[in-house]
Amino acid sequence: MDRKKFLKKAALGTIATIAGSKIANAKDEMPSKSTYDKLMDQVGFNHLPADSNHENNNNYKMKKSVLHKANTRGHANHGWLNTHHSFSFANYYNPERMNFGVLRVLNDDVVASGRGFNTHPHDNMEIISIPLSGDLEHKDSMGNVAVIKEGDVQVMSAGTGIYHSEKNKNTDKEVRFLQIWMFPNQKNVTPRYDQITLENKDINNQLYQILSPSQEDEGVWVHQNAWFHMGQLEAGCEETYTIKRSGNGVYAFILEGDVKIDGQELNRRDGYGVWDADSITISASSNAKILLMDIPMSLS
Questions:
Q1: Which ranges of 65-149 does DSSP label H, i.e. alpha helix?
Q2: Which residues constitute the domain of residue 183?
Q3: Better-scored residue on pLDDT, 34 or 82
Q4: Average pLDDT, stretch 86-114?
Q5: What does the angle CA 211 – CA 66 – CA 282 come to, to the nearest 5 degrees?
Q6: Higher model confidence: residue 56 or residue 190?
Q7: Is the torsion defined by CA of 154, 181, 115, 193 positive or negative?
């Protein structure tokens, strides 16, 4: 379903009455501390990652980077949920892996057939879901009901507060998706939901924008000066990405394959953050799929 069709369907109210009674009842039970406050307390804020190459040189002002190899991520297997955390989350805590700028959560989730996250609250976070395989069913307290699949991108601005649930719609296969949270640049906005489909978009050997701060731009939009790009690169392909805004850094997450970014070798599910830079150069060592997140390094 493309964005225009989805928004039209929501406006007509055809899905507004489908959300379950659990969501309606849950709205009466407010959490003791907000999502935003809990995560902000942990971050501190404006904590920059230790520079992998120059961490002992405080006067070094050139391009800086941090490497997060896939096998160093936090991991939990709950049976119904097998998840890897690029940053501290739930029972995984590493003070050097709290965030990358305003990027606070990057979870790589696998949910068993027919299982999922029951109704729970969020506020004042920008929440992005990117399915990698399978079908993920979403319901929320705004009345939205949707199923997203590979090729879709979903965003929620939690704002003043929402309740939602996410469930594997299928009873015979897993669903895999990325769950990404960012601190917003505006608090207490009106909650909102949006989704797009990239099915007919050509992202081969190019970086295609899937998220931005503008409603008029390509992809979904968020309350943050952030731009996300997705690309499928054939072996030998080289792309230069220019960071969109002064004060932003870029965090690359390698979904599949092997690439080099500014000469740093990266493999499947590795993360690599770069800041104090104008651009990065990406070279595909094999056929690869990559997600770039261009985000503010401080909360202003």
A1: none
A2: 3-296
A3: 82
A4: 95
A5: 55
A6: 190
A7: negative
Q: How many helices (H) and strands (E) does the chain have?
A: 3, 22
Q: Which two tokens stand for residue 165?
A: 């649930």
Would you give the end-to-end CA distance of the chain in angstroms? 35
The residues facing 271 across adjacent strands are 68, 253
Specify whether the CB–CB gap between 162 and 168 falls below 8 A: no
How far apart are the C-alpha atoms of 261 and 253, rounded to whole Å? 11
Residue 203 is part of a domain; what is its CATH number? 2.60.120.10
The number of angstroms, rounded, from the C-alpha of 274 to the middle of its chain's C-alpha atoms is 17
The answer to whether residues 233 and 208 touch, using CB atoms and an 8 Å cutoff, is: no
Whole-angstrom distance, CA of residue 65 vs CA of residue 86: 15
**Number of residues that this document lists for the chain:** 300
Could you tell me where the DSSP H helices lie in 56-178?
Answer: none
Q: Report how many domains make up the chain.
A: 1
CB of 129 closer than 8 Å to CB of 175: no
pLDDT tens, 266-279?
Answer: 999 999 999 999 99
Question: In the prediction, which pLDDT does 252 show?
Answer: 98
SS3 content of the chain, % helix, strand, coil (to 5): 10, 45, 45
Choose among 160, 257, 155, 161: nearest CA to 205: 257
pLDDT at 221 over 70: yes
Identify the CA nearest to 93 among candidates 43, 167, 24, 29. Answer: 43
Alpha carbon distance 135, 71 (integer Å): 26
Q: Which whole number is the average pLDDT over 194-221?
A: 90
CA 245 and chain centroid, separation = 19
- For the ranges 120-129, 192-201, 255-264, the lowest mean pLDDT is seen at 192-201
Distance of CA 202 to the CA centre of its chain: 21
